Amino acid sequence: MGEGNVILREIVRELSEKGRKAVVLNLGEVLYVDSSGVGELVKAHTTIRNQGGQLKLTNLTKRVNDLLEMTHLSAVSIFIRTRPARSSHLEAHKQRFSASMDILRGEASDRS
């Protein structure tokens, strides 16, 4: 078991003991989750849910998001995205900027 799993377990235990019902994990800097990490997330979800709370994950990287979707865990309530992942957020801005530049250059197709 990795150090990250132990840390997550301890944090969830402490929050649970304090009666915290809403827990949001910012995974913005998590580049990879292995099977034991997925298991630990499921355990964290179960612990918090059993106390009437909810665990949410935010700022999922594309790789972590893809893993959760591949394993069908994205359908479980713990994998609610409270904010878009940073890379997809920036990509959306780049696409809007690009479309705006096309319009300014007169290169956009007729959309009416």
Please name the defining characteristics of this protein.
single chain; 112 residues; mainly alpha; Transcription Regulator spoIIAA; two-stranded parallel ribbon; disordered C terminus
Architecture blueprint of SSEs:
Blueprint: H1 3-17, E1 22-26, H2 35-50, E2 54-58, H3 62-70, H4 86-105
Parallel strand pairs: 1-2
Description:
The chain has helices spanning 3-17, 35-50, 62-70, 86-105; strands at residues 22-26, 54-58. It has 112 residues and is mainly α. It has a single domain (3-85), classed as Transcription Regulator spoIIAA (2-Layer Sandwich), CATH 3.30.750. A two-stranded parallel sheet has the order 1-2. Helix 2 (35-50) links the parallel strand 1 (22-26) and strand 2. The longest helix has 20 residues, at 86-105.
State the distance separating the first and last CA atoms.
Answer: 57 Å
What would you give as the CATH superfamily?
A: STAS domain
**Helical amount:** 40-55%
Number of strands: 2
Work out the count of structural domains.
1
How do you describe this structure in short?
By secondary structure, this protein is mainly alpha-helical. The chain has 4 helices and 2 strands; from the N terminus they run H-E-H-E-H-H.
